[in-house]
């Protein structure tokens, strides 16, 4: 009785039903709720037991739906639906566990999640069930996602506008413009750095050159090798191994 109290009596949905699947077992958190009919309607997903009681899931609360064919995970192929909501069925099941403090901590952080499995007696219907759900879900874009995106873009834009007013943003130049804006001292520093860079590059080149000459001597047949110095350096290691 009490554990099933979220099941309500209501008439089967009449409008916008994209798919109706009779003889479908509903399973919540591993416990069977019996056999009934699954209605994939545009407004919500409803399941009604043959006795006329059942439940509905709102599309915005459905975070995931998939066709599950992995028989090691669950012994029958089914439509798997994850919902961000709490159902009493599970609370009673978890009751005895809920004594440690850990449980309370995790409840605060974690969104409630319920896992439903809808197991049709006719497995060939699963693709149609899945695509009907995709169509209906597309009619209900998640308001939370949209709001948070818009807020975020809005805040970002406001911050930038605010900074422009304050004149906090440093001015950026292209490379050429940047050079023309350098002070004389800065220009000298830049040239000194470029000189040091050129020097270190040429000294690397010379070292590589020395290794090139060594490696030519090392070839037994004395054949001349005409390769870029750095590449010759790499060849040296490879050839010596052989």
From TrEMBL:
> What InterPro entries is this protein classified in?
ICln, ICln/Lot5/Saf5, PH-like_dom_sf
| Record-linked Pfam families | Voldacs (PF03517)
Q: Which keywords fit this entry according to its UniProt record?
A: Cytoplasm, Cytoskeleton, mRNA processing, mRNA splicing, Nucleus
GO process annotations (BP): cell volume homeostasis; chloride transport; mRNA cis splicing, via spliceosome; spliceosomal snRNP assembly
- Could you state one GO cellular component term attached to this entry? plasma membrane
Signal peptide: which range, if any?
none
Intracellular or extracellular location(s): Cytoplasm, Cytoskeleton; Cytoplasm, Cytosol; Nucleus
Q: What does this protein do?
A: Involved in both the assembly of spliceosomal snRNPs and the methylation of Sm proteins. Chaperone that regulates the assembly of spliceosomal U1, U2, U4 and U5 small nuclear ribonucleoproteins (snRNPs), the building blocks of the spliceosome, and thereby plays an important role in the splicing of cellular pre-mRNAs. Most spliceosomal snRNPs contain a common set of Sm proteins SNRPB, SNRPD1, SNRPD2, SNRPD3, SNRPE, SNRPF and SNRPG that assemble in a heptameric protein ring on the Sm site of the small nuclear RNA to form the core snRNP (Sm core).
PANTHER family listed in its UniProt record: CHLORIDE CONDUCTANCE REGULATORY PROTEIN ICLN, METHYLOSOME SUBUNIT PICLN
For this chain, the family text in UniProt reads: Belongs to the pICln (TC 1.A.47) family.
The name on file for this protein is Methylosome subunit pICln
Q: What is the lineage of its organism?
A: Eukaryota, Metazoa, Chordata, Craniata, Vertebrata
- Its gene is Clns1a
């Amino acid at each position: 009785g009490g554990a099933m109290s979220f099941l309500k009596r209501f008439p089967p949905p009449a409008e916008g039903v994209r798919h109706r699947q009779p003889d479908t077992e509903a399973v919540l958190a591993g416990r069977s709720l019996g056999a009934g009919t699954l209605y994939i309607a545009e407004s919500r997903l409803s399941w009604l037991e043959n006795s006329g009681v059942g439940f509905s899931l709102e599309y915005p609360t459905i975070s995931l739906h998939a066709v599950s064919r992995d028989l090691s995970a669950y012994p029958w192929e089914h439509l798997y639906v994850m919902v961000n909501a709490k159902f009493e069925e599970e609370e009673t099941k978890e009751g005895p566990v809920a004594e440690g403090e850990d449980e309370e901590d995790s409840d605060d952080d974690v969104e409630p999640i319920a896992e439903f499995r809808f197991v049709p007696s006719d497995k060939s219907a699963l693709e149609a069930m899945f695509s009907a759900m995709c169509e209906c879900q597309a009619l209900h874009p998640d308001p939370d996602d949209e709001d948070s995106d818009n807020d975020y873009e809005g805040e970002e834009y406001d911050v930038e506008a605010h900074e422009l007013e304050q004149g906090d943003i440093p001015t950026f130049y292209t490379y050429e413009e940047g050079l023309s804006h350098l002070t004389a001292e800065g220009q000298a520093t830049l040239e000194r750095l470029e000189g040091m860079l050129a020097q270190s590059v040429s000294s690397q080149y010379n070292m590589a050159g020395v290794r090139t000459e060594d490696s030519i001597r090392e070839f037994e047949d004395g054949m001349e090798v005409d390769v870029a110095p750095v590449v010759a350096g790499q060849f040296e290691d490879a050839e010596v191994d052989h």
